[in-house]
Every structure is written in C-alpha cells, then in structure tokens.
Amino acid sequence: MQNIRYGFKIYGNHLENLSLLSVFLEKHSDRIKIVQVNFDLLESFPNRKYLIDLLTRYDLGLIIHLDDSDDLLFLSQLMSSFSSVPLVGIVMHGAVARSMKELNLHLSSIAEHYECFISVENTKHSTNFYKKAIKKTPVLSFCFDVGHNWINKTELEKSKFLISRINMLHIHGVIKGNDHERLSRKNRKSLVKLLSRISFDGGVVVFEIKNIFYLKREVFSEFDKLLVASRREYREREKGQNAEQGHPPLN
Ligand SMILES: [Zn+2]
After folding, report:
1. Cα–Cα dist 208/169, whole Å
2. What separation in Å is there between the alpha carbon of 241 and the centre of ligand 1?
C-alpha cells in the first residue's frame, strides 16, 4: 500500500518498549514510518534521547499524543528539543473542549511552525461534538479511532463531514469490552465493513495495541488485505445502489 504510512504507538514501560521496537525495526524498518508516543514519554530525558536516536537511525516521523490535561504551551517549549526529528503530527483527546478561540490561535502557530497536522481523536463524544470542534478550529483534522468508536457505540462513520476530515486511523481491537487489544477475527470483519463505509484510501494508520509483542510484520500485511477487501465491499455496495436506482454500473 503505497499511500499508507504505518505507525505504532508506544505504551507503558517506555524504555523497555522502545528497545523492543528497535529490535523489530532492525529487521522490518520498511514497514513502519512513524512512531506515536504519549506526551509523558518526552518529559523524561533518557527516554527522549533513546527515542531521538531511534527516529534518526530509521528515518521515522514522530506523532505526539496529548491527553486532556496536557499543556499546549509546555508542549511547544518541549518540542524545541525535538527539532532534529520530523514532527508528523499531534493528536489530542478532549483538549478541544477547552477555550476554542485561544486553542485555535495556538494550534495554528504550532502547525505552521512544524508543518505538521493536528488532529482531534474520538473518544466517547457524539458526532456533533467533533463536528463542532473541527468547524470552530479549522486547523484540526479528524483522527478516527476505530476501537473507541466500537466500544462507545458512537457510529461516527455515519457523518459525511467527519469522514471528509479523516487524515489518520487509530487501529486496535476490542475484546471482551477491553480496547487496545490485538484485532480478533470479529474485529477484523467489523473493520472491513467500517473501512468500506469511510472508503479510506490513504493517510496515516497507527496501531495502538498495548502489548508490543503483537508488533509483527504480519500486522501490516494483514491490514493491507483488509483494506483491499473493504474497497471491494465499497464498490459492490455502490454497484448495488446504482442498479437499484436504474443507473448503469460504474466501471
Ligand atoms: Zn487512539
């Protein structure tokens, strides 16, 4: 898949997970282009140094993940120490619910300075919440977290507006009510259906799976296949709809 840049999120014990990631990259650096980290990983100096070395060695981009309580001003100060690595984007949870006007100005200057994208990611809020946030803060794109969408039953794929603003997918499984798991067979089936609804054909795809032992080459080739299946499903549905409306099928 030429038009997809795959990434992986680092969780938990950061140094340990960073070294596991480096073992994977030694063999398969062709599959991963991006590493996504939580803000707290950047605060500790040994982690920061290890991470910068890793990103530089394998020519990887960085995505910073912000939680609700993370401070944007502190982030921009901290990021100056990351000037040597390409910042691909920033993704945030509910921070957009704070003062929109102030946030808009601040985010626009960060996006311009670092030439990166800034996305809001769905958690438990409704379609309207994200729609409103993106309309009021135009620098924001939409990160569609499929696991959060399943677990919170938000059905955001029904919004044409949100679909049109997707630039990144967060992929993880939901097993027995827990998210950030591997993709089960049931999850993979639902994922094909979901991808066919949003007709996703490119962008950033970050796997957010807590257990880094799941980080295998097959994860990426499996997703490639799911995407091909979803495109087929999308085309078949379109064909069916056209036939129903008496239009000639599209080639
Ligand atoms: Zn996510």
Report:
1. 10
2. 33
Looking up tokens 């960085």 gives 62
Cα–Cα distance for residue pair 57/101, rounded to 1 Å: 39
Asked if residues 101 and 129 have their Cβ atoms less than 8 Å apart, the reply is no
Closest CA to 177 of 169, 168, 186: 186
Provide the mean pLDDT of the chain. Answer: 87
Both tokens of 149, joined, read 């969408």
The model's confidence at residue 95, banded by pLDDT at 50, 70 and 90, is: low
3-state secondary structure of 10: coil
Longest dimension (CA), the chain: 64
pLDDT of 247: 66
Residue with tokens 């040597």: 84
Domains in the chain: ranges and CATH: 4-244 (3.20.20.150)
Is residue 97 predicted with pLDDT exceeding 60?
no
CA of 169 to the centre of ligand 1 (A): 8
Q: Please, are residues 66 and 75 in contact by the beta-carbon 8 Å criterion?
A: yes
pLDDT of residue 8: 94
**Which pLDDT does position 99 carry in this prediction?**
63
Contact 39, 70 (CB under 8 A): yes
- Give me ligand 1 centre to Cα 106, in Å: 22
Q: Which residue has the higher pLDDT, 94 or 157?
A: 157
Rounded distance from Cα 97 to ligand 1 centre (Å): 17
